[in-house]
Amino acid sequence: MDLIDRYLTAVRRHLPRPQQDDIISELSDSLRSEVEEREHSLSRPLNEAEQAELLKRRGHPWLMASRYLPQQYLIGPALYPYYRQSLSMIVFWVVLPITLIGGALNAIYADNAMQVWGRVLSAAWNGALYSVGIVTIVFAILERERVRITALDNWNPTRLPTASEGREVPRSESVLGLVFGFTFLIWWIDLIRVPEFMNYDGEPVAFTLAPIWSTLYLPILVSLVAWIAIQAIDLVRPWRSLAVSVVDIGLNLFNVALIVIILRAGHFVDIVAAPQFADRVESFERLLNNIVTGTFIVIGVISAYELIYELWQICRARRPLLQR
């Protein structure tokens, strides 16, 4: 397979499936016509270095694919389907917990059902605005800044894989990973605070993080940055090389170790409220900490699964090479 075919394969991976065949056919004709003209002028076939120079002038496969798609004001069509999917998932995972937790805690303080529902709906509305705002900002940055990524100007056409090399990573997986990573990172570094959603007689109910989070602040930050970097690489190069897979495995091992440390702590959140509600707040605090424990158990299982899956993919990809 020559560099032209490998380039076309890489561009295809950045295109929406319904448009892949038409765009690749058009691009293939254009590229091969240019190659024929160059070969005719030189009276010989182009060598690999000359093909690479021709392709480099065309631009990185990601940028080439984006040129074939119509532009929108804020989020282009290449990212818009993932934007909608991310919105639904982020809103679900933010608004639902806020509604459930806020509803349970409000039930402790509120004098009547109408007061409970008013506060819960207010919490859900604030959480939805926060979620939509963060997701939109992340996608707007991805849309506007992708043409300015210097790594896309320094790519090497000779390193493009063949159609059978490298595990293909779905673009939706990379985009959603970036959105979740950036959203959690923005919250973790306290760049944007989640709006307060509980109060009683005008005074907020304070949620205080346990000391374990201060201890693990830097390791979790490193894990988040590494996760975002892997997702960004997968977005630009939607095929998993051995090096990226090894880094991903190392990150999952690191995350599993973090989760073990977190689970051993056993206490994650303290709730401070009026003294007359101490007994009910203590019960809710215990429930909330149990929910956090269950959540991290699920995250640990997912991390372990991803670790095993990535190891299996490496073995699967390497098996044909060992049989040669």
Describe this structure in words.
This protein is mainly alpha-helical. The chain is 70% helix and 5% strand. The model has no long low-confidence stretch (mean pLDDT 77). The strands form three sheets. A two-stranded antiparallel sheet has the order 1-5. Strands 2-3 form a two-stranded antiparallel sheet. Strands 4-6 form a two-stranded antiparallel ribbon. It has two domains: 69 residues, no CATH class; 253 residues, no CATH class.
- How many discrete structural domains? 2
Q: Please give the share of residues in helix.
A: 55-70%
Which segments are poorly predicted (pLDDT under 50) over 5 or more consecutive residues?
A: none
Topology order in helix (H) and strand (E) letters: HHHHHHEHEEEHHEHEH
Distance between the termini: 18 Å
C-alpha Rg (nearest Å): 25 Å
Q: What structural category arises from helix and sheet content?
A: mainly alpha
Q: Give the averaged pLDDT, no decimals.
A: 77
Morphology call? elongated
Order of strands, main sheet, comes to: 1-5
Give a count of the beta strands, DSSP E runs of length 2 or more.
Answer: 6
Number of discrete helical segments: 11
Q: What summary fits the major beta sheet?
A: 2 strands, antiparallel
Give a summary of the structure in a few sentences.
The chain is mainly alpha-helical. It has helices at residues 3-12, 20-42, 48-58, 61-67, 80-109, 113-145, 171-188, 211-215, 217-236, 242-265, 278-322; strands at 167-168, 199-200, 203-204, 206-209, 239-240, 269-272. Strand 2 (199-200) and strand 3 form a beta hairpin.
